[in-house]
């Protein structure tokens, strides 16, 4: 999956999770209270299933999950191979 | 009814679970309830069968149960004793947390004994001042060299009286954090909590931590992820346990009621021949069917990692525990004064069903969470 397709998928998922159609790439969905306390596990499950990665203990950092941009950067770093 | 939706192996497991519950649990549950204790022998038998480690992956030495099979275990045991499902619930939550988020050292030290049931795990989140509102915990973890000093109190901790390892939630530098604390740690005391409404043989306790020193290597996951990841992913299994245990309660309530209706005569006829009583039984049976389907759908969604799995599990917990309360109340009604006797099994079902509506996120909390998901969904789709 190329970078833009990946971003589209992440953007769609986070927007749905946050219930906001035009969710800005940099908006922190946790800080702004857009999502409930279950969002973190839903998001991790989504990433593991769709990008075939394993979220490890070392990855646990809000900076990896808090916005569309953050998640895309995280996936980039995880060097996603395919999907 | 469920049988036709289960795989051959799930059906086999169900048969084994039901046999065990009928032989080893149901005949004794009232006695355990009155004495507020569960014999060590039944815990040992569950461990011996591998069921305390059922949910653990095969590579961890577990039986690798899928979510539905774990549900079936809770259902079968729940038809015998609600309290005993509390053990499956909290022990499995601790075990899965370590399996999913533990460090290699934590796994090495604790996973195998938990899987084998050589040690028992308990889940310690609730405080008198913070139950459903679990963001406001006051238990503190404070730096003390390479260790943490733990101070705080937890209450209503299931199976804590016999547990060896506690998954304890609190704040570390203001961040929600989860820490593993073994029973034998100095400064940690466990006091039995008696006279609960239900779950009477679930060995509840109050935990006190006074300057308890615990190595930092006992932090699980990372500070800041105690609630939103560690607690919630554990509670996903906790809610499956409660939802399916509620099926067991409904089944037992229906069976006891039908048997009573078939044998009790009033006004010259069996209760079974009274329209109102038949109506109750029809409602209980329909609710049971609906609850079975929602629970099955939720665990299947979890197994295939569907996007709505979490929401379905919340819905299953909410629905099945609500229906268990309604069914158990009808069972008491059908038994009349006999049903109001504390030593009568249906009174126990009624009391345990109420507990199922309060624990693992009260049903009001489930509604808040599900409601938010629904609102988000419709606000996004804008149609
Ligand atoms: C038998 C038993 C076993 C338990 N085992 C464990 C265990 O093993 N580990 C553990 O950590 N905890 C355990 N608990 C604690 C349990 O999880 C809590 O009791 C539960 O989360 C509710 O918290 P609370 O009692 O503080 O109620 P509160 O948070 O005080 O809420 C009281 C009532 O008000 C409702 N309510 C609260 N806020 C709102 C709102 N905003 N809108 C609408 N309604 C609201 C709640 O739903 C609840 O019905 C156990 C409890 C029992 C009874």
TrEMBL record, chain A:
Coiled coil: none annotated. PROSITE patterns: CARRIER. It comes from the Bacteria. InterPro entries: ACP-like_sf (IPR036736), PP-bd_ACP (IPR009081). Residues 1-79 form the Carrier domain. This is Acyl carrier protein. It comes from Hahella chejuensis (strain KCTC 2396). The lineage of its organism: Bacteria, Pseudomonadati, Pseudomonadota, Gammaproteobacteria, Oceanospirillales.
UniProtKB/TrEMBL annotation, chain B:
Keywords: FAD, Flavoprotein, Oxidoreductase. One of its GO terms (molecular function) is acyl-CoA dehydrogenase activity. InterPro entries: Acyl-CoA_Oxase/DH_mid-dom, Acyl-CoA_Oxase/DH_mid-dom_sf, AcylCo_DH-like_C, AcylCo_DH/oxidase_C, AcylCoA_DH/ox_N, AcylCoA_DH/ox_N_sf, AcylCoA_DH/oxidase_NM_dom_sf. Residues 232-374 form the Acyl-CoA dehydrogenase/oxidase C-terminal domain. Pfam families: Acyl-CoA_dh_1, Acyl-CoA_dh_M, Acyl-CoA_dh_N. Belongs to the acyl-CoA dehydrogenase family. This is Acyl-CoA dehydrogenase. It comes from Hahella chejuensis (strain KCTC 2396).
């Amino acid at each position: 999956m190329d970078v833009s397709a990946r971003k589209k998928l992440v953007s769609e998922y986070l927007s749905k999770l946050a219930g906001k159609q035009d969710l800005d790439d940099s908006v922190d969905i946790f800080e702004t209270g857009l999502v409930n306390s279950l969002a973190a596990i839903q998001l991790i499950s989504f990433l593991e299933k769709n990008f075939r990665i394993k979220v490890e203990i070392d990855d646990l950092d809000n900076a990896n999950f808090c916005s569309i941009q953050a998640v895309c950067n995280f996936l980039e770093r995880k060097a996603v191979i395919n999907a | 009814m469920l049988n036709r939706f289960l795989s051959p192996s799930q059906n086999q497991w169900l048969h084994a679970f039901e046999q065990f519950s009928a032989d080893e649990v149901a005949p004794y549950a009232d006695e355990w309830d009155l004495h507020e204790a569960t014999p060590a022998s039944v815990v040992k038998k569950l461990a011996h069968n591998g069921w305390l480690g059922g949910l653990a992956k095969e590579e961890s030495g577990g039986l690798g149960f899928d979510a539905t099979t774990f549900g079936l275990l809770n259902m079968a045991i729940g038809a015998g004793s609600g309290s005993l499902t509390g053990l499956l619930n909290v022990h499995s939550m601790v075990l899965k947390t370590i399996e999913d988020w533990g460090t290699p050292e934590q796994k090495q030290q604790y996973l195998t004994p938990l899987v084998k049931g050589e040690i028992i795990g308990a889940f310690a989140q609730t405080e008198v001042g913070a139950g459903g509102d679990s963001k406001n915990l006051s238990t503190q973890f404070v730096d003390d060299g390479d260790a943490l000093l733990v101070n705080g109190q937890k209450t209503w901790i299931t199976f804590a009286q016999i547990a060896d390892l506690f998954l304890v939630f609190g704040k570390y530098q203001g961040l929600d954090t989860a820490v593993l604390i073994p029973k034998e740690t100095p400064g940690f005391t466990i006091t039995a909590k008696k006279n609960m409404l239900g779950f009477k043989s679930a060995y509840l306790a109050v935990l006190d931590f006074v300057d308890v020193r615990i190595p930092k290597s006992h932090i699980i996951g990372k500070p800041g992820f105690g609630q939103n990841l560690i607690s919630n992913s554990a509670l996903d299994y906790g809610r499956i346990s409660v939802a399916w245990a509620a099926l067991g309660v409904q089944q037992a309530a229906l069976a006891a009621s039908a048997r009573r209706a078939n044998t009790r005569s009033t006004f010259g006829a069996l209760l079974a021949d009274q329209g109102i009583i038949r109506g109750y039984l029809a409602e209980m049976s329909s609710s049971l069917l609906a609850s079975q389907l929602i629970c099955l759908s939720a665990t299947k969604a979890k197994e295939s990692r569907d996007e709505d799995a979490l929401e379905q599990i919340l819905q299953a917990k909410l629905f099945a525990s609500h229906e268990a309360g309604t069914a158990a109340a009808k069972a008491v009604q059908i038994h009349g004064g006999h049903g109001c006797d504390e030593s009568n099994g249906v009174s126990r079902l009624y009391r345990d069903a109420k507990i199922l509506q309060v624990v693992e996120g009260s049903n009001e909390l489930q509604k808040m969470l599900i409601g938010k998901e629904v609102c988000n969904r419709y606000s996004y789709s804008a149609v």
